[in-house]
């Protein structure tokens, strides 16, 4: 059985990882040690951790004294700009099993250094990419593989998410490419194979007098080696929330909606078939708690000693494409410079 160690007690650690893990500890107790999970944050969040049923520690050294690093899964829930040194220290402390919050890194240069730490420390590292474990993704992949609707022509994503408060309160994500797109890019690569960046655009986020460069919306176009084109649009200043995917086939169309939040784990899928005896429209709503599925699988594979190399390569490729998108992106809409009475917020570099 494995013990859990959560590093980073912000939204990802306390509102995403821990609630799911707490449910899994009740549902699948054979996977988890009876001891309470350890928790560490750069700030003093001892009370927060204790109230949540976690055992706070003040350092990695203390954590290493309280648990067997070889039998512990570390959840790295710090921002992508603050991970490299942490991974080095985790490796030096003997921790080998790492779950990294997405994206794996904020740029390709840091990605190469993280991979070096992984290799030199013999780390078993997996990146949170639960959309790949989603029941909706599996159904869309099956439609593509079986050819039921003919060859795949295109994929499109709309990821609309009101993220104003969190953006104004944190600089952990350098651009809008780093927030929602790691999910959709990974799914696109899984369904249609490797791709190249064809176009990329960013806009600033403007809230009253504040301007946050590159954190408004992001648009990415990928041309897959297999032929299809993927278009992804994400708006972090949207007044509504939507996670929509559409696959256009030669003989039909599939439109899916991933669950909109942590409080409702159901997906929607509508499939339209072309002319012929099998033509028509079918719609389905089904359970899709992808993050629980992901963590359950990951802990089982950690326990069984299964390699995560293939998943890590996919996570690498996602970061490489997003890094290329940032480098080539065209800033559209209002310029980064502030207008009269406006103030530009500094973002992570």
Model description:
The chain is globular. It contains ten helices and 18 strands. The chain is an alpha/beta fold and 349 residues long. The strands form three sheets. Strands 16-15-14-13-7-12-11-8-17 form a nine-stranded mixed sheet, covered by helices on one side. Strands 3-2-1-4-5-6 form a six-stranded parallel sheet. The protein folds into two domains: 3-127, NAD(P)-binding Rossmann-like Domain (Rossmann fold, 3-Layer(aba) Sandwich), CATH 3.40.50; 131-293 and 320-344, Dihydrodipicolinate Reductase, domain 2 (2-Layer Sandwich), CATH 3.30.360.10. Helix content is 34%, strand content 29%.
Structural class: alpha/beta
Estimated radius of gyration = 21 Å
Low-confidence stretches: none
In the CATH hierarchy, what is the architecture of the largest domain at level 2? 2-Layer Sandwich
**What are the secondary-structure elements, in order, as H or E?**
EHEHEHEHEHEHEHHEEEEEEEEEHHEE
Mean pLDDT across residues:
92
- What's the helix count? 10
- What's the count of strands? 18
Main beta sheet: strand number and arrangement?
9 strands, mixed
Name given to the CATH homologous superfamily of the largest domain: Dihydrodipicolinate Reductase, domain 2
* N/C terminus separation: 39 Å
How do the helices and strands line up, and which of them pair or pack?
Blueprint: E1 3-7, H1 11-27, E2 38-40, H2 46-51, E3 55-56, H3 60-66, E4 72-76, H4 84-92, E5 97-100, H5 108-120, E6 124-127, H6 135-146, E7 152-162, H7 164-169, H8 181-192, E8 195-202, E9 205-207, E10 210-212, E11 217-224, E12 229-235, E13 237-249, E14 252-257, E15 266-273, E16 280-287, H9 290-304, H10 309-328, E17 330-331, E18 343-344
Parallel strand pairs: 1-2, 1-4, 2-3, 4-5, 5-6, 7-12, 8-17, 10-18
Antiparallel strand pairs: 7-13, 8-11, 9-10, 11-12, 13-14, 14-15, 15-16
Helix pairs in contact: 1-9, 4-5, 6-8, 8-10
